[in-house]
Amino acid sequence: MEYKVAILHDYLNQYGGAERVLEILLEIFPKADIYTLFYDERRLAGKFKANIRKTSFLDIPLVRNNHRLFIPLMSLAASCLKSLTSYDLVISSSAGYAKGFKVKGKKRLCYCHTPLRYAWEEEYMESQTVFPKLMVKTIGRLVAKKLQKWDKKTAKSFDGYIANSTYIAEKMKKYYGIEPEVIYPGADENTFFYDEKEIREEAYLMVGRLVHYKRFDLGIRACEKLGKNLKIVGTGPEEEGLKRIANPKHVEFVGRADDERLRSLYNGARALIFPQTEDFGLVAVEAQMCGLPIIALKSGGAKEIIEEEKTGVFFENQNEDSLIEAIKKFEGKKWDGAYISARAKRFSKNIFKDKMKEIINRYL
After folding, report:
1. What does the alpha-carbon distance between residue 139 and residue 137 come to, in Å, rounded to a whole number?
2. pLDDT (tens digit, 9 = 90+) per residue, 132-172?
3. Phi/psi at 110 (nearest 5 deg)?
4. What is the DSSP secondary structure assignment for residue 189, as one 8-state letter?
5. What's 257's domain CATH number?
6. Range of the structural domain that residue 122 is part of
7. 109 shares its domain with 235
């Protein structure tokens, strides 16, 4: 039997880990309708276009290009986004807003990347918005309290709950009183794999959207103090600021990289520097599938991906000194790329798909 399926996604104006998960869900349900706040066809290079069913009143160029300015309106836009169609299954793949879409479904599953950060994490709101910190601490707190109520209410509207990591499952229990199942996002083993013929260079690597919370600045400063070379893959609002503090002698900004280029960079780097707290961290999984060890902040999803001193090393404090000590510790050890790659396969795309299908079949 072919089921009629809708997938709810917060917004589509960038390509990251959540969008990779969306792609995998579309492999399971190729004809699924996508509901999203707004869609930027140019930035997504046409990805997902064939499946877009409906967007919100925020789907205009001004919002697509400056979406952080419109955070206070997103819960309203989400509540206004409705479907006339009733689906057999509705899957919310969301970091907050999409689970508030009024899309009808006989069964509704919530795959949670994180509870809404703008509601629960003041530091995140300060770092991600363009508004002055004083405004965030005053008006922002009032907005956050309203968003918390909205976030809790919309979270209760599903039949089943899945978290992308144990770290996020604990947050869901704390904020929503919900104990979800955990299914880790998966990376494609046919795309990201260990190539022992590749020669590892001396350069370290950082990968992701260039936004504040990912702390590319720490990697830049630590590598420059140690006289180490660093390659940075990605684009984002922090790009110009990061280029101003980086010494071109040590730091190379690669820009966007397709999967083939990214696999080559993973296989050719010395280690991935991962100084941020992530809900899970697909970049870390992709890197390890390519046999690349990781130097990571001991926080968030990284603790579920990395085996201390076997597939990477941790540092405790999110500052330059702590990262520098971790790099020195890393350089004093030998690393087995084949072992690192083998361990990462527990996070494969096929395992993710199988577990999602199992839960979906249970509910349908």
Report:
1. 6
2. 555 555 556 777 788 889 999 999 899 999 999 999 999 99
3. -110, 115
4. T
5. 3.40.50.2000
6. 5-186+349-363
7. no
